[in-house]
Design goal:
Elements: H1 2-5, H2 16-55, H3 60-79, E1 85-86, H4 87-103, E2 108-113, E3 121-122, H5 124-145, E4 149-157, E5 160-167, H6 180-191, E6 195-200, E7 206-213
Helix pairs in contact: 2-3, 4-5, 5-6
Length: about 230
Amino acid sequence: MLRLLGRRDRPQEEDVPELGALRQQLAVAHAVEQERTRIYNDLHDDVGSALLTLLHRVPDSEQQLVREILQDLRAILAHEHGVEGTLLEVLAQLRDEVEQRLLTRSIGLDWLQADTLPDPLLDRAQGMHLFRIGREAVTNAIRHANPTRVRIVVRQLASDLVFEITDDGRFDPTHIGDGRGTRSMRSRADELHGDIHWQQGTLGGTKVLLRFPLPAPPAGAGFPPTAQDGSIPR
């Protein structure tokens, strides 16, 4: 657009084809966004309504499962367009949701976050990838490990963020493979230009370890000092 505006000395008709193509691209993008919004609204209204109806028809022993599915649907739709804010704001949103999910299942949460974490601004994609990786890790712990506690550790190591989720349930390597959830987490870690892996945790269950580079701070700013080993201050 700036290039087009800078060509005032050229005949106006030369700009018309490019302006037309630009308008067409914007129209297509707008139509795609409208259709995406319609699909999300339909999911929320139709699927949500069906789940609420089902909730009142299933036996009491299965109602908790339906409530969990409904809660998961609402959370996914609420954050699928992106999670905006700084690192600490995204982490606060994730912590709030994790606490609510675990509370409904009587699972304890230990959230250990270093006081010296920097607070760079994350774009919508970065915030969404971090949020969804954390959410999927908690979902897997609930579904496969049958834990009584989940521990989440967030710390800085050099210019990277280290994000760990460990449960005290069962460690079953057969559930760590090429499943859709695992593939999604790996893909999101790649989008963050980081890496993710799974191992047996110190609590006896599974540890998910994500590490990715944080956005560079503005010129003249720097990350707060941290211990060389990235440890969390006590």
